[in-house]
Amino acid sequence: MKNRVVLYFSAVQSEQPIIYQLIKNTDLIVNILKADINPQKEGYLVVELEGDKPHYEAGIKFLENLGVIVEPLSQTVVWHDELCIQCGACASFCPTQALSIERESMIVSFDNSRCVVCGMCLECCPTLAIKLHFELKEAV
Amino acid sequence: MTCKKTYEEINEKIRRGEAVVVTAEEVIDVVAEKGYAKAAQEIDVVTTGTFGPMCSSGVFINFGHSKPRIRMQKVWLNGVEAYGGIAAVDAYLGATQVADNDPENKVYPGRFMYGGGHVIHDLVAGKEIRLEAISYGTDCYPNKKVDTVITLADVNEAFMFNPRNAYQNYNCAVNLGDKNIYTYMGVLKPRLGNAAYSTAGQLSPLFNDPHYRTTGIGTRIFLGGGVGYVAWNGTQHHPNVPRGENGVPMATAGTLSLIGDLKQMDPHWLVGLSYLGYGPTLAVGVGIPIPILDEEMLRYTAVKDEEIFCPVVDYHQGYPYGNHTDLGFVSFKDLKSGKVTINGQEVVTTPQSSYPRARQIAGILKAWIQAGQFELTQPVAALPGADSQIDFKSLPDRQPNGVLSMVRNRR
């Protein structure tokens, strides 16, 4: 199975080679999509984890046992449909087509599973309909 | 057989619930199936729509008098200043007004989270708004300070009066520089990284009436979810530009000044926007009905995206500094496809105007007319047309010394 998750680290955890241990212990394929890790400060990683189900679950358990908060990516970037005016500006900035326009109707939609949390859409959305929920947890 | 209809004949059909109304998209299919002559006989009204950022927008408000009375000299709504230099408790709030405490572009590019457009949106949504006003105090208006909370329902009058809306054609904006730029056309990536455009194309009001035959002063329209009127030509109305054979201008051309009762409007159709590095503004929904008086009008309304072209303009050096590079034209069909070719390079397109909402507006206006709630109006006076000799003037660059002393000595 393959999943995109966000890992929130405390300041102490940021000093540990957690990803190294994760790969070594569980044999998961780890693809880091976005990272904000600084010494002595809390931070986060957006990663894609790939492996068979027992290994995947072991990996998540390993991270949680270390106190790392694991959240599905879908809860991190939220597209507020009710704020969106369907202009479509975001789609031309989205590198993975998570935000895309169906050209016949010109309707914009957001496919969570394709999002890599690059944040480009946050800048170009004039109604601020796309929100990022990192800040809320970085203090953990 | 030539087809001629009058406004009164069309309105009579609307009152009887028999008018044939289609949107500016649907008319294209009708023409493809039946041809111009037959379509002109059958169709009575074509509805248009557009929904996008329209910076030259705002509202006049009369707040009602405080006790004791105040002649509001400076006025703020939720910390956003409105112009108070009119009668005692009247003010005008503009869409692009920046909040007093906004960091602007001090940390570049600024986010401009809240401004005039957002206040208008909140007002129309019925939210509570903080009203602050100060004055110097007079015998008739002794109060010097007001700090209270109002809603749209509390004020005497609130009407939207937009000096320039519904631009007939607009630039396709690109960036030939080496860095991101932050404009009213959105973020423009360097080296032709994207091409931003803002028009509803075949649905857009003035593309469907390119010579302003039926759209003029007094035309009743859809404005912000309510009923409004064309008040005047818009500012920067410049109809005498090069046009295609279909009459569609090849550059920014006609504009409309629009007016309507804010209390009838809907926050869905007036949305505050924050343009990174540029400022706040307001997305306005406008829909204009076009009576099919004859086959000529029908032909105008059958205009298609591939027959509408807009000029490509560089916003790095061209627009701001007037150092223009000829980048040619792109069709609205290509813009809508997501990719255009500029200087031989394939460029992704960034829409600013909402096509789905433009389509909804044309649909709503159609429903209003079909239900007999909305009749068409013959313009009281025409807008200046393509044969007018309007100069598109720039600001003169003069030494102000002499002028200043004139002002001082006027008394």
Task: Summarize it.
The complex is a heterodimer of chains A (140) and B (411). Chain A is α+β, with helices and mostly antiparallel strands.
3D structure, described in words:
The complex is a heterodimer of chains A (140) and B (411). By secondary structure, chain A is of the alpha+beta class. Chain A folds into two domains: 2-74, ACT domain (Alpha-Beta Plaits); 78-130, Alpha-Beta Plaits. In chain A, 19% of the residues lie in helices and 30% in strands. Chain A contains three helices and eight strands; from the N terminus they run E-H-E-E-H-E-E-E-E-H-E. In chain A, the strands form three sheets. In chain A, strands 2-3-1-4 form a four-stranded antiparallel sheet, with helices on one face. Chain A has a two-stranded antiparallel sheet with strand order 5-8. In chain A, strands 6-7 form a two-stranded antiparallel sheet. The longest helix of chain A is centred in the middle third of the chain and has 13 residues, at 53-65. The two termini of chain A are 28 Å apart. The mean pLDDT of chain A is 88. With 411 residues, chain B is of the alpha+beta class. Chain B contains eight helices and 24 strands. In chain B, strands 3, 4, 7, 10, 15, 16, 17, 18 and 19 form a nine-stranded antiparallel sheet that branches. Chain B has a four-stranded antiparallel sheet with strand order 6-5-8-9. The radius of gyration of chain B is 23 Å and the shape is globular. The model of chain B has no long low-confidence stretch (mean pLDDT 96). Chain A binds chain B through residues 85-89, 91-93, 101, 103, 105-108, 123-124, 126-128, and chain B through 51-53, 113, 186-187, 194, 196, 271-276, 281, 283, 336-338, 348-357, 359.
Topology, element by element:
The complex is a heterodimer of chains A (140) and B (411).
Chain A: E1 2-9, H1 18-26, E2 29-36, E3 43-50, H2 53-65, E4 69-72, E5 77-79, E6 99-102, E7 107-110, H3 120-124, E8 130-132
Antiparallel strand pairs in A: 1-3, 1-4, 2-3, 5-8, 6-7
Chain B: H1 7-16, E1 21-23, H2 26-42, E2 45-47, E3 50-53, E4 58-62, E5 74-77, E6 80-82, E7 90-94, H3 116-124, E8 129-134, E9 145-150, E10 157-165, E11 172-174, E12 181-183, E13 186-188, E14 195-197, E15 220-223, E16 226-233, E17 256-261, E18 270-275, E19 279-287, E20 289-291, H4 295-301, E21 309-314, H5 318-321, E22 329-331, H6 332-337, E23 339-342, E24 345-351, H7 355-370, H8 401-408
Parallel strand pairs in B: 1-2, 11-21, 14-24
Antiparallel strand pairs in B: 2-20, 3-19, 4-7, 4-10, 5-6, 5-8, 8-9, 10-17, 12-13, 15-16, 15-19, 16-17, 18-19, 21-22, 23-24
Helix pairs in contact in B: 2-4
